[in-house]
Design goal:
The complex is a heterodimer of chains A (296) and B (419).
Chain A: H1 2-37, E1 40-41, E2 49-50, H2 54-60, H3 63-94, H4 101-109, H5 116-126, H6 133-140, H7 155-164, H8 168-179, H9 183-191, H10 196-207, H11 209-223, H12 228-233, H13 249-259, H14 263-291
Antiparallel strand pairs in A: 1-2
Chain B: H1 15-36, E1 53-59, E2 62-66, E3 70-71, E4 76-81, E5 91-93, E6 98-99, E7 102-109, E8 112-126, E9 131-134, E10 148-151, E11 157-160, H2 166-173, H3 185-188, E12 199-200, E13 203-204, H4 208-238, H5 245-255, H6 260-273, H7 281-284, H8 292-303, H9 307-315, H10 320-331, H11 333-349, H12 352-357, H13 366-376, H14 382-402, H15 404-414
Antiparallel strand pairs in B: 1-2, 1-11, 3-9, 4-5, 4-8, 6-7, 7-8, 9-10, 12-13
Helix pairs in contact in B: 1-14, 2-14, 4-8, 4-11, 4-13, 5-8, 9-10, 11-15, 13-14
Classes of the chains: A mainly alpha (296), B alpha+beta (419).
Chain lengths: 296, 419
């Protein structure tokens, strides 16, 4: 039996060999190397020089670091909140035997396929303050649209609206969740005299809460990595115009690392991002115990 | 019959919010394709128009295609001077400049301008409500000076006419302005003949087609690598029982949380020391070593395949590799196509990776090439930006209509999209 076990171990490791290499070379090594670089003065061109915690001390006094952290948190939470409400609304509307269901589902889903670069260019032109299509349409209903991407107060919301346009992806996930809710629960709630809203808040939402939860966590983690939208929509200067209102965390990390070649400092930013995401995930698992209904 | 699920009861009123939301979601898509087919002068007009239009006027028996009309704005006079620098030409002048058959005109003398007076004949007054149109020249590079017409708005007719030529022009025009200096990978792929570009001794101009072949190269190699390696690893993690299997699986799951930006600086320095920066290799070689998400997805699928099938094959004397290849892979086709599709979408849309690792224009992917063109020519040539953006999304839409089931199943079973 020992020989068989050893044989199975060998075969198992052999099948997993590509991943064992990939895991160490493309995941574990870079993660640890980033930690080491974050304690160094490193420009890629020269070998890293150990400087202790200097990078972190400087980072926490860096106005742009805090600014980018605030911008990114605002964007991540805003886009996830709006995107989730939108996706849930679409899914609930479509979870019926309405005529033209396939058409509607396709219409809501298609925008989520838009490559981010192309989508950002498209919305950049639509947001144009002077004669852009969005402000022209708003004027038709007597709303004076803001200057969107050139207004520091509206640039982030503008990017959030664009992100919510891609809610079709989450809608498909929610729709699948809604269709799994057992009919007997609705029948029971009707016997108990629950109305439409009560059934929504007491049956539907709790039943798909694991799906919503998973989506929100993944959405926030994804939101913290936003980069291309800001680079493309608010000027290729990379400073996160206007008034650094769209200087997102990864954009700042990219600027510091690849424009200023301060790779050590950028690695410190990278590790802070990693710890933030770890913390968010941990907090989410704790909260989920209270809010998410897992038993079916 | 009323369904007990309140959310499945159908009332016609539900169409109202649905139609409104569908318009909201499809609007920008429609706008993209409509503007990508508009003539150059129509894109960015105030107020904006949706439909691509061709404008024309009729002069005698001549049917002249013209640019979109622009209002004159103030009352003017159209005159023909009998002498001076504009002798014999039609000129649009302010009413004050023309009096009693005499035109006062600023003429450049040596290094300054001074007013001079010439005899001139009045053609007709132009009202401020009239419009100017320019003769539409087929190519913006044409040497001919376009004729200008001042006409009543009603004389300009128009018809809906998409400019399909924007697409080939976008393919041709989206260049980095540099020549391909190396014998590029695309040549090895047999894509060396680009029908739309000019050839010369120094090399070929880098265009959107170069970017397309780069993207496809990364996609084909990446999809192949990711499907093969992830399937192998998923097999090892699900169909063979060995010590440490669960531990490796848990580590694999937890790495799904590590974001790419955290890893990108050390990855850059690894690839740099390997001499891969400026080549496509950083974008496809890692795919051959599996990916956490794909391994997870395939493992879950492999677990649903009954063990009896493997046992039967083992009794028949099949090796593990044979079972993997002959029994498991054929049964896992739906899951494998989800992995392939998602990786293709990832490569097609990826921007940060190419931005960091690709330093030479001849290696750019489409997404990067488009962004670089936009950042260099931001304001102008909107019709080309829209054309190129449309070309970037069109293949994905076509793919969706062919593989709709794989898209929907992949997203709803994994809870993720193409990232």
């Amino acid at each position: 039996m020992r020989a068989l076990e050893r044989r199975k171990l060998g075969i198992g490791l052999l099948f997993c060999a590509p991943w064992l290499v990939g895991l160490s070379v493309f995941m574990i090594y870079p993660l640890l190397a980033a930690l080491y670089y974050s304690l160094c003065d490193y420009s890629v061109l020269l070998p890293p020089v150990f400087v202790g915690l200097d990078n972190y001390v400087e980072l926490f006094q860096d106005r742009l670091f805090w600014k980018s952290l605030w911008n990114t948190s605002f964007f991540a939470l805003g886009s996830v909140a709006l995107g989730t409400v939108m996706a849930l609304t679409l899914a609930i509307l479509l979870n019926s035997k309405v005529k033209g269901l396939t058409f509607y589902r396709t219409a809501f889903f298609l925008p989520s396929l838009m490559p981010l670069v192309a989508g950002s260019i498209l919305w950049f032109t639509m947001y144009s303050g002077q004669g852009g299509i969005i402000n022209t349409l708003l004027k038709k209903i007597y709303i004076d649209g803001p200057a969107w991407l050139t207004d520091p107060n509206w640039a982030k919301p503008a990017i959030i609206f664009m992100t919510a346009w891609g809610a079709g992806n989450a809608m498909v996930i929610f729709l699948a969740g809604l269709q799994d809710v057992p009919m007997s629960l609705y029948e029971a709630s009707i016997i108990d005299g629950a109305n439409w809203l009560q059934r929504l808040t007491n049956v539907t939402i709790p039943m798909i809460s694991p799906v919503i939860y998973f989506n929100v966590v993944m959405g926030v983690i994804g939101g913290f990595q936003a980069f291309a939208q800001a680079l493309i929509m608010t000027g290729s200067t990379g400073v996160g115009a206007p008034e650094q209102s769209t200087l997102f965390y990864v954009l700042q990390l990219y600027n510091v690392g690849f424009m200023d070649l301060r790779m050590g400092y950028a690695s410190a930013m990278a590790w802070v991002l990693f710890i933030i995401i770890l913390g968010l995930t941990f907090a989410a698992t704790q909260l989920s115990k209270r809010w998410v209904t897992y038993d079916r | 019959m009323a369904s007990p699920n309140p959310l499945q009861r159908t009332t016609p009123i539900i169409h109202l919010p649905l139609i409104f939301l569908a318009a909201l979601f499809l609007g920008p898509m429609l706008w993209l394709f409509a503007t990508s087919l508009q003539p150059r002068e129509q894109v960015g007009r105030v107020p904006p128009e949706l439909m691509p239009r061709q404008y024309f006027i009729t002069q005698g028996s001549e049917h002249i295609v013209v640019t979109p009309p622009q209002a004159v704005g103030i009352d003017k006079l159209l005159v023909v001077p009998a002498a001076g620098p504009n002798q014999g030409q039609q000129l649009l002048v302010d009413p004050q400049a023309f009096k009693d058959g005499q035109l006062t005109q600023a003429v450049r003398v040596a290094d300054h301008e001074e007013p001079q007076t010439f005899a001139a004949t009045l053609v007709r007054p132009i009202a401020k409500t009239d419009v100017t149109v320019k003769e539409w020249l087929l190519s913006k590079y044409s040497k001919t000076v376009p004729r200008v017409f001042y006409v009543h708005p009603e004389q300009v007719q128009s018809e809906v006419q998409p400019v399909w030529g924007n697409y080939p022009e976008a393919i041709k025009a989206l260049t980095s302005g540099e020549k391909d200096k190396s014998r590029s990978l695309s040549e090895l792929l047999g894509l060396s003949v680009y029908p739309w570009t000019e050839h010369n001794a120094k090399g070929r101009t880098i265009t959107f087609l170069t970017y397309l072949s780069n993207t496809l190269l990364v996609a084909i190699l990446g999809v192949t690598g990711t499907v093969i390696s992830s399937a192998l690893v998923a097999y090892g993690l699900s169909r063979i029982t060995w010590k440490g299997r669960e531990a490796l699986f848990n580590i694999t799951l937890s790495t799904m949380m590590v974001p790419f930006p955290v890893l990108m600086i050390p990855l850059y320095s690894v690839f740099r020391s390997l001499g891969w920066i400026g080549t496509l290799m950083p974008l496809w070689v890692p795919a051959f070593f599996g990916g956490a998400f794909n391994i997870f997805l395939l493992r879950q699928f492999f677990l649903t395949i009954p063990n009896e099938l493997s046992e039967a094959a083992r009794i028949d004397g099949c090796s593990e590799l044979m079972i993997f290849w002959r029994v498991i892979l054929p049964l896992a086709k739906p899951a494998l196509s989800v992995v392939a599709l998602f990786h293709f979408l990832f490569v097609w849309n990826d921007f940060l990776g190419p931005l960091i690792f690709l330093t030479k224009p001849e290696t750019f992917t489409m997404a990067l090439g488009l962004q670089q063109y936009q950042s260099q020519n931001g304001g102008g040539e909107h019709h080309l930006l829209m054309g190129a953006s449309a070309l970037l999304v069109l293949p994905i839409i076509v793919l969706f209509f062919f593989a709709q089931k794989t898209f929907i199943q992949g997203i709803s079973t994994t809870g993720m999209g193409g990232r």
